Amino acid sequence: MAGPGNGASASAQDSAAPLLSVRDLRVAFDTRRGRVVAVDGISFDLDEGETLGIVGESGCGKSVTALSVLRLAGRAAHILSGSIRLAGRDLLTVSDAEIQAVRGGEVGMVFQEPMTSLNPVFTVGEQIAEPLMRHRRLSRRAALDRAAELLDKVGIPTPRARLASYPHELSGGMRQRVMIAMALSCQPRLLIADEPTTALDVTVQAQILELLAGLQQEFGTAIMLITHDLGVVAEFARRAVVMYAGRIVEQAEVGALFERPLHPYTEGLLASIPPMEEDLDSLRTIEGTVPSPHAMPPGCRFAPRCAAVRPACRTIDPPLLALAPGHQAACIAHADYRLPAGSGQAHADTPA
Amino acid sequence: MSEAAAARDAAPSPDSAATAAAAPTAAIADAPPSMLGALVQALRADPGAAAGCLVILLFALAALLAPWIAPYDPTSQNIARAMQGPSAAYWLGTDEFGRDLLSRIIHGARPALLVGVFSVVVSVAIGVPIGMLAGYHMGWIDRVVGWGVDIMLALPSLLFALMIVALLGPSTGVLVVAIGISHVPIFVRLARGSTLVVRGLEYVSQARSFGASDFHILRRHVLPNIVGPLIIMATLSIAGAIREEASLSFLGLGVQAPQPSWGNLIRDGVAEVLEAPQLAILPGIALTLAVLAFNMVGDALRDMLDPRDLTAATSKKH
User: A129, A143 in Cβ contact below 8 A?
Assistant: First the structure.
């Protein structure tokens, strides 16, 4: 839609349109027990240079969402519907060659497990150089020079010497720094970080998050941060998406989300963070467990565990609606929630 | 007995030299581990492997230089000197046609090593790509490959090789192909299983997330990480192929008389085993030594090629 106008108007349009736009994404997996819908009609946007946290328990579909952006969810995954637009281009329909150019080029990815994310038989330098040689067509020497610069940027001392190290010679924190250097090597516009600090101990976690924030400032990279840790989101993200059982239940600016959560699930998550000032005999939890994807409850998926459950919750599947500026939630219990005519029923009719 | 004895005598000597040299070197040693350094280190740590290397080297030299180092033409007959015991002129004695046994054993190393090495080249070249593709892509490719492998493994590999030889007629080239093909399913299975493991590791997903193509992932990320087990299997397979070459030659389906092979030497010797047991025993010892040597070296290579073990060995020293 960006016409061939002058540079100023084009860039103005760019900054207005989101960098990443996910619309009505539905992803299913074929299992022995039948087809399971892991991500069920989610939509969200991510602006240029923004940090979006995606929060939820394991199995809520947050990692599948992240992997689907690069079509990496695996052979068993089927994208049933929806679109994932990166700067206007639908990544779900581009050719294999194009998506390979996007991976590591326009979109970098950092995984959870730094201990096994590096190939044990190649040096760190060779591994950082690889995407640079592929996407930037750099010579080996130039790629290694760039790799040393990147190691320096991610705070690894004596980067030149470290190029010749093998992964097993580095600590977990160091390896995660290397992974970040690799992911940022081609200066992607979007970095997807899937639980980047979960496997690290707390002090290293803080350092890595600080590093990511610093690099984001420097490169202007947008970050999609997948985590189960609300603390990490509070510290690091501007906006957050809360997922439950394959749906988005709430979406808001981080400040609003923490001060005034609109969905009982978010409230439950916040309440389960142990408070600093008092000693608890036991940690607060949300009663019950996530519903099995083979047997999703009719109506609201959180209803079986919800403290504020009403009879209507068991039949009406509430869509995500804006309840305040920039704040959406999917809960009929909220005073401002007005179910659009017929929509709840339509959802309730769709087979799980 | 001299060849085997020489091998045994020679084996410990570089070792003791190495241990003597080890003390001063260890004191200075902080040199970066090179491929050669790692080799020397591995051989020092494992005298069995060092002996194996030496035996392979000796057999390789014997095979390569056979026409020059063998004292006699292995096929020239002299009935007048038939069935002699060891003597100064004929170190290991002569057979029923008066042919020099030592010369025949030395020349017998040629088909053994040739068939051993090249048949494994054939099995690796066919089996590894098929196994990697099956393990990487799974699905129908894997099922079809699996059926093929199961069918081939239902037959003993020797029988399979025998069928091919029967079909194409005995010659060294046919032996290479026949034994090579009969070992393919082992490599398919091994490559498939190892690929399956590596494929699920995070660095493969990571590589994919950096835009690597399937071919690139197989070549750069899967192959180097499955090469260890493949090398061990290849070395063991060389040993097996040497044995099978001897077996087929023993049965008259391999190297044809009058050309010597350890297998047909043993067969000819068996006929005279009461009168001159060395005619069967000495080629048998040569065969056993060669097979044993490849097995021991296979193990040592594995230790050397694993980068984690390599540093473990280096850090142990400090």
Answer: yes
